[in-house]
Amino acid sequence: MDQYAALRANVGLLGTELGETLRQHLGDAVLQRVEQIRQLSKAARQGDNQQAEQLRQVLTALSDDELLPVARAFAQFLNLANLAEQQFSISAAGRSSIEKPEPLTELFQRLQQQAIAKGDIRQALHDLSIELVLTAHPTEVARRTLIHKLTEIAGCLAALEQPQTPWQRQQTELRLTELISQAWHTNEIREQRPTPVDEAKSGFAVIESSLWQAVPDFLRELDTDLQRALGEGLPLDAAPVRFSSWMGGDRDGNPFVTAKVTRQVLLLSRWKAADLFIQDLDLLSTELSMNQASAELQAASEQASEPYRAVVNKLRQQLIYTRDWLTEALKHDRLQRPADLIWHNQQLLQPLLLCYQSLQQSGMTRIAQGRLTDTLRRGYAFGLTLLKLDIRQDAGRHAQVFSELTRYLGLGDYAAWSEADRQAFLLRELPNKRPLFPKQWQPSAEVQEVLDTCDIVARHGSEALSTYVISMAGKPSDVLAVQLLLKEAGISFPMPVAPLFETLSDLQNAPDCMRQLLSIDWYRGYINGRQEVMIGYSDSAKDAGVLAAAWAQYSAQEALVQLSRDYGVKLTLFHGRGGTIGRGGGPAHAAILSQPPGSLVGGLRVTEQGEMIRFKFGLPQLAVRSLALYASAVLEGLLLPPPVPKASWRQLMSALASDSCDAYRAVVRHNPEFVPYFRAATPEQELGKLPLGSRPAKRNPTGGVESLRAIPWIFAWSQNRLMLPAWLGAGSALAKAVEAGNSALLDEMQQQWPFFATRLSMLEMVFLKADAEIAAYYDKVLVPAALQPLGEQLRQQLAADRQLLLQLIHSDTLMAKEGWIRESIMLRNTYVDPLHILQVELLKRARQAPDDLTAQSNRALMVTIAGIAAGMRNSG
């Protein structure tokens, strides 16, 4: 039996509906053209060279009028195919085909088989702390309005899987037709770049449409598994998964995120939380009509005949008043906050807990554990601020504040001081009671912006804010400087300050930097036994290649875990992963289990970026599954930790890291032809025109590849299917190890060490997505003849690396054990291939005669970029 038959049927259904929409609105001729291209693409994928050539001829001969509708048809189809896939993964038919359909149930069974003590499981659950940090990134191409339509389409597919009367089925199919037509008539590319506030709103939309329902559902699932395994459920206040955000707080390299924007996002977050809880309380007020109640609840309801309803309605009125005040506050810069707002979580939880306890005492446990429990759990997970906001700023901006200040005070220039002098100054001022900044001092606009941000942080408190992240941190003074700035702003809570170690050298120096910091008595006393450190994946991989970066990340984590033990500090590692392999992406479950033992003891913090938020959390059931995968992986890491690597593994891994870094940099840094080749062979230059995220594509607008953000760097290479950053250097290093007679040791590492096994399986996925023929076509049409030999060389390297990997994993097929991922990539290729050919044609036209490019053609180019991103899935 074909286990993917249901998926193919849904893909076929959506394709037929899209075809019908094209026929209605564009006529038979366009539909026939699209269908001809699809058939040719399918034949070309099956190895028919004649059809492949004909496909190229048809696409390059399209008139200006045909380019856009054809590009849109294939891009739309990929969005629909992705949706069908998401729906399949949570459907009854799909659960038997995907990896780990019941991750928590499976884990508890394994814990039982391995005789893990109930007390240890209980403790691990008590310590379970997962914080997912939502970030908007420039590769989330789809607009919110389109995402809403796609979610509705998923609902139709789910309905069609259920038994329906003929009339019901007809109505569902009509709705499906209508939604696909709506999507077709909606511009899939934004007209303008989103602002940071728009990005924050997209985060709130994910919570409202999916996570608001998914979090209590996930906790019910976890509770059931626990009842089965331990005979006891989750405590009511358990919030093993929480959410934070960088949207509106991440000012690193983004001049549009100002203190004013941060304030607006913090208030909007509260507004949305109040609005969602008001809706919850509406429902509770309808349902909690009981009259039997405890004496405490009777008193709180002022002896109302329906005490639960009275207490819930009072809370609801207070929240409506709070929401109204927030509406006004968003219109004014400063608005005095009245004392009777619902501002702190306890004010929300206390009346609800009173209702819960009263129901329990009155013998109505079933009612207490229904909707009321869901609302309470949302209260603990989201609170009145919905998403806690992180603040991120570059270390240099903090140093600039003290540089201007010390010059004004006649103390010299902080920027020119040694690290010892900087520390001495900061540690002298940190315990000092008098203000540091003179009233008459007039700082520059840039410095004032940093001070205004710290002022906003101090005003909004620990319920609204999570961590202050310092990018490009490398010295203890970088952390102390932020502590002093926050203290001067009048902060009343110890906000965690996390240095972010990003490049290869940063990661290698991280343990030494943290050792110096933790050896400062004042600092250790101030942090109260807790430290957060952020590990950067994107920049380290861009700097050194994936293999060297992965080993540097692993080694840094291992050393930091040991260091925190030495100093008796609880360490939380914050992983700055992207969606792609080149940025630490890939399946989360495997990634978590490949971390060093002990690295999860202080909890897990990890970024969820751009389009990956939608792929993991876009539908409530999908989000429940993603949360279960996270929870099961962290629990497994705590209770069944991976082995400590043997000395022989470390030695070989260090050699692999060093060799791969040399091979990677030989191409990317030291080959003078590389940068011009990169710019010609990929749409890197054109990506800047796409209104994707609010941040500029470069940190330094006039710089070269080194100044490019990691995201457009990866994104550009996924567009031409060479996928270079995700594999370059790794294969050369592995080949060297095999030549040196290390095949048996590589085998052992693959069998026994999850870290190494995960590296190889990530390479498998990359090689399955990479396509040398497509990359060669980009070169043939777009790259000057003098640079083409470099492309040829890189493709030969890709082929050799792919061959070697198959040998190492003892297989003749990539991803043979991951049928689901393999199927999903193959399914999309037929629709991505025409977009590549169209993109090459449009890039050629744009580069040869930029002034002749029509608005239609320019938009078609943008659509191909968005469509390929949808087809590649984890492109950012």
TrEMBL record:
Cofactor(s) needed: Mg(2+)
Keyword vocabulary terms for this entry: Carbon dioxide fixation, Lyase, Magnesium, Pyruvate
Keyword Chloroplast: no
Catalytic machinery residues: H137, K542
SUPFAM superfamilies: Phosphoenolpyruvate/pyruvate domain (SSF51621)
Single GO molecular function: phosphoenolpyruvate carboxylase activity
GO biological process: carbon fixation; oxaloacetate metabolic process; tricarboxylic acid cycle
Pfam family, any one: PEPcase
Gene Ontology CC: cytosol
Catalytic activity from the UniProt record: oxaloacetate + phosphate = phosphoenolpyruvate + hydrogencarbonate
Cited InterPro entries: PEP_COase, PEP_COase_bac/pln-type, PEP_COase_Lys_AS, PEPCASE_His_AS, Pyrv/PenolPyrv_kinase-like_dom
Enzyme class (EC, first level): lyase
Record bears the keyword Lyase: yes
Highest rank taxon of the organism: Bacteria
Enzyme Commission code(s) on record: 4.1.1.31
PANTHER family: PHOSPHOENOLPYRUVATE CARBOXYLASE
NCBIfam families membership: PRK00009.1
Subunit structure: Homotetramer.
UniProt similarity note: Belongs to the PEPCase type 1 family.
Purpose: Forms oxaloacetate, a four-carbon dicarboxylic acid source for the tricarboxylic acid cycle.
Protein name from the UniProt record: Phosphoenolpyruvate carboxylase
Gene this chain is encoded by: ppc
